[in-house]
Automatic annotation (TrEMBL):
Record key words, sorted: Membrane, Signal, Transmembrane, Transmembrane helix
Keyword Flavoprotein: no
Membrane topology per record: Multi-pass membrane protein
TM region positions: 215-237, 280-305, 317-340, 352-376, 382-408, 439-461, 473-499, 511-530, 542-565
Protein name: Transmembrane 9 superfamily member
Gene Ontology biological-process entries: protein localization to membrane
GO CC list: membrane
Signal peptide region: 1-18
Protein localization: Membrane
Family membership noted in the UniProt record: Belongs to the nonaspanin (TM9SF) (TC 9.A.2) family.
Main location group: membrane
Taxonomic path: Eukaryota, Metazoa, Ecdysozoa, Arthropoda, Hexapoda
Length: 581
């Protein structure tokens, strides 16, 4: 049963049969032009069905389109047949296909669309095509509103495949009450030398993504890595070496040396440093989810590099959903084993928390935004069937796989093997300087990791919230590796200072210090919203800050886990090397 549920979910996620995507046409075969969405240019995610505006269609018969993948439904793809007759390699001169008469309601709708710079998106052979509804003419003092009524398609073909589509909007007509507006189109076919596998290159912007500042940011981050690795190495090779020599002396230390020894106080807490973290269930669930998110991000980046996922509609999100579901055992294994090593007994509750914590946050935010989408009648409203599908994936795929991982983790890696014995009574934590407090360390811990990625954040934000297609996943992989290294190094340094202050609460401190990177990313998203975009309105604002909060949360869980894991290796190393009396 579990196996078949997994296969059905994978089939729905990946979708699309091979026959439907061979993109081969014979002469005069029908080429379907799909109308997708229409919406204000400055609010990319605020989209509506194309025929929500009072456009007319040509042919009355319709061709039904179903959501090929789960990601299409989640992204608000609502393809409707345009009604235009287009045949492969058959030129069509200017031909009227429908006519509308502007009553007051239609005029208001079109005027509102033109005033708010509405644009629309179409698909022809899976190639996106964009057009503008109309334009405003203010030369006469008072603004006049015009609509483009003629669509001119220039389609390039190579052999039996379509490799290029260009749309030119012509013949503007003033939006005057009771006027009759005829809509026309023409199609010109041209032979092209563009290869089919290269047909998406025209949508990329190498001048933007491969700008000099992009390379400079990578170099700057790389230098930061060298500095931090050198700093950590210095701590390990010099400071700790002195500490080892000091603590390994057999002779008794005098009072002055004991006073000086307070500066090297990390050994003083050897009996408490491996004490289980407070709220062990939540902590282990976060770490387990962090392992899973890290694997998902790395896998999707590699798949994007190898498979050019940006060329297929919704394929990136489909891949992410599939990989997240398939890697659920990773979550269960590492979260369950950590909870067992911390002495946790309520393992079923911990497993449920690990399995559903992140999906619940994502679905909760998505459903909240969905209510706003329904109120606005936006295409981003998630259909009920899609909600059921997501719920089934969580219950019948993610939950069983997390259970399997948890059972394996508890049995294979659930026994505590700490190098130091844990004292029965917790050691009092002495007072320390304000800058050594865990809260201060947490706030400062995310500064350098954020500094290593904030330029890449600009490119990622621009590709998602503006009209750029992100394709430089090699850059992203490099930045991902740099972020991991910087996060581990910074967290190790922070933990060393904390332990030196004889504060053994390093688990949550290391996790939160690394996770605080996400707080700086979320603050940067405010700057980006107000100074780099022209977004407006309740729907777009809620969509932007809601999903940026989810992005920052996932980034925080990932960075927190990486920081904690790196620090735990460091802590085990130093306490296993020192001679403990």
């Amino acid at each position: 049963m579990l196996f078949w549920s997994f296969l059905l979910s994978v089939g729905f996620i990946l979708g699309a049969s091979a026959d439907e995507h061979n993109h081969i046409y014979n002469d005069r075969d029908e080429v379907v032009l799909w109308m997708n969405t229409v919406g204000p240019y400055h609010n990319r995610q605020e989209t509506y069905a194309y025929f929500s505006l009072p456009f007319c269609t040509g042919r009355k018969e319709t061709i039904n389109h179903y959501h090929e993948t789960l990601s299409e439904a989640l992204q608000g793809v609502e393809l409707e047949f345009s009604g235009l007759d287009i045949e492969f390699k058959a030129d069509i001169s200017s031909t009227p296909y429908c006519e509308i008469q502007l009553n007051e309601e239609r005029q208001k709708a079109f005027v509102y669309a033109v005033k708010n710079h509405y644009w629309y998106q179409m698909y022809l052979d899976d190639l996106p095509v964009w057009g503008i509804v109309g334009e405003v003419d203010e030369n006469e003092g008072t603004p006049s509103y015009y609509i483009w009524t003629h669509k001119k398609f220039d389609i390039g073909y190579n052999g039996k495949q379509i490799v290029d589509v260009n749309l030119t909007s012509e013949n503007k007509v003033k939006l005057t009450l009771d006027v009759k507006i005829p809509f026309t189109y023409e199609v010109n076919w041209k032979k092209s030398n563009v290869k089919f596998e290269d047909r998406f290159d025209k949508y990329l912007d190498p001048n933007f993504f491969q700008h000099r500042i992009h390379w400079f940011s990578i170099f700057n981050s790389f230098m930061m890595v060298i500095f931090l690795v050198g700093l950590v190495s210095m701590i390990l090779m010099r400071t700790l070496r002195k500490d080892y020599a000091r603590y390994s002396k057999d002779e008794e230390l005098d009072d002055m040396e004991r006073d000086l020894g307070d500066e090297y106080g990390w050994k003083q807490v050897h009996g408490d440093v491996f004490r289980p973290a407070s709220h062990a269930m939540l902590f282990s669930a976060l770490v387990g989810a962090g392992y899973q998110v890290t694997v998902v991000v790395l896998s999707v980046i590699i798949f994007a590099i190898l498979g050019e996922l940006y060329t297929e509609r919704g394929s990136l999100l489909s891949t992410a959903i599939f990989v997240y579901a398939a890697t659920s055992p990773v979550n269960g294994y590492f979260g369950g084993s950590l909870y067992a090593r911390m002495g946790g007994k309520i393992w079923i509750r911990q497993m449920l928390l690990s399995a559903f914590m992140l999906p619940a946050l994502v679905c909760g935010t998505a459903f909240f935004i969905n209510f706003i989408s329904i109120y606005y009648h936006a295409s981003r409203a998630i259909p009920f069937g899609t909600m059921v599908a997501v719920t089934c994936i969580c219950i019948f795929v993610i939950l069983p796989l997390t259970l399997v991982g948890t059972v394996l983790g508890r049995n294979l890696a659930g026994q505590p093997d700490f190098p130091c014995r844990i004292n029965a009574v917790p050691r009092p934590i002495p007072e320390k300087k304000w800058f050594m407090e865990p809260a201060v360390i947490v706030v400062l811990g995310g500064v350098l990791p954020f500094g290593s990625i904030f330029i890449e954040m600009y490119f990622i934000f621009t590709s998602f919230w503006a009209y750029k297609i992100y394709y430089v996943y090699g850059f992203m992989l490099l930045v991902f590796i740099i972020l991991m290294i910087v996060t581990v190094c910074v967290t190790i340094v922070c933990t060393y200072f904390l332990l030196n202050a004889e504060d053994y609460r390093w688990q949550w401190t290391s996790f939160l210090a690394a996770a605080s990177t996400s707080g700086y990313v979320y603050m940067y998203s405010f700057y980006y919203f107000f100074f780099k975009t022209k977004m407006y309105g309740l729907f777009q604002t809620a969509f932007y800050f809601g999903y940026m909060a989810l992005f920052s949360l996932a980034l925080g869980i990932m960075c927190g886990t990486v920081g904690y894991v790196g620090t735990s290796v460091f802590v085990r190393k130093i306490y296993s090397t020192v001679k403990i009396d």
